[in-house]
Write a structure and sequence with these properties.
single chain, 215 residues, 7 helices, 5 strands, disordered C terminus
Length: 215
């Protein structure tokens, strides 16, 4: 039974090329859905069936993400904004999947969240904040600079990241990059107080479910 929804970008020329790749068995890659830049939605695998979209990785202390997730591919090169028709189609699709499988907003993640060493999709141009405003993803609450930790430590960041769902074994630099890509896409430089305040806010509001390992 799906517990997660994983978002990807295709990194291909267009939706037709992506459809061909996803439907050719020799490539050993598949997804439940593909959404074109024009907003067209293609269902390729039944939601109850396992698709080969996530690969090796971990989220919320559990591996084998393919067996417990619905994968959605978005027709995008990875360097361009996601089109309005595509985002308009994605939101109701997410709401329907979440309702059918009782998946909470914190269960909608990016490929880069569960496999940060290997993957960078859906990338810095993806509008996660828009999804959070529609209650189909999550976003940290604003924390005043006066409340930011003065001397943020990597250990504290890794602990909060683990409690939110990231795999601390990936390392501080890798997780900081993955976290920023999704939640602070314009941030640069070493770990700072804004990073730690944001990840701690997420960990407190959307912790790993107690039934999962490493909770």
């Amino acid at each position: 039974m799906p517990q997660l929804i994983v978002l990807h970008f295709t990194a291909m020329a267009n939706a037709s090329a992506a459809l061909a790749r996803l439907c050719e068995p020799e490539h050993e890659v598949s997804a439940h859905y593909l959404i074109g830049r024009d907003g067209a939605v293609y269902q390729l695998v039944d939601e109850a069936q396992r698709a080969w979209h996530a690969g090796a990785g971990t989220w919320a202390g559990c591996g084998d993400v393919n067996s417990r997730s619905v994968g959605i591919e978005l027709d995008n090169c990875g360097q361009s904004p996601f089109s309005a028709p595509q985002m308009d189609a994605l939101e109701p699709l997410l709401k329907g999947i979440m309702a059918r499988w009782n998946i909470p907003a914190k269960g909608v993640i990016g490929h880069s969240d569960m496999a940060p060493i290997r993957k960078g999709d859906p990338g810095r141009r993806f509008d996660w904040r828009r999804l959070a405003k529609s209650n189909v993803s999550v976003w940290p609450c604003a924390v005043a600079p006066s409340q930011w930790p003065c001397a943020p430590q990597e250990g504290a960041f890794l602990d909060a990241a683990r409690r939110f769902g990231y795999d601390p074994a990936c390392g501080g630099a890798t997780l900081l990059a993955a976290f920023r890509q999704r939640f602070r896409p314009h941030a640069t430089g070493p770990l700072n107080g804004a990073d730690l305040a944001a990840i701690e806010n997420l960990a407190q509001r959307f912790p790993i479910d107690p039934c999962l390992p490493n909770a």
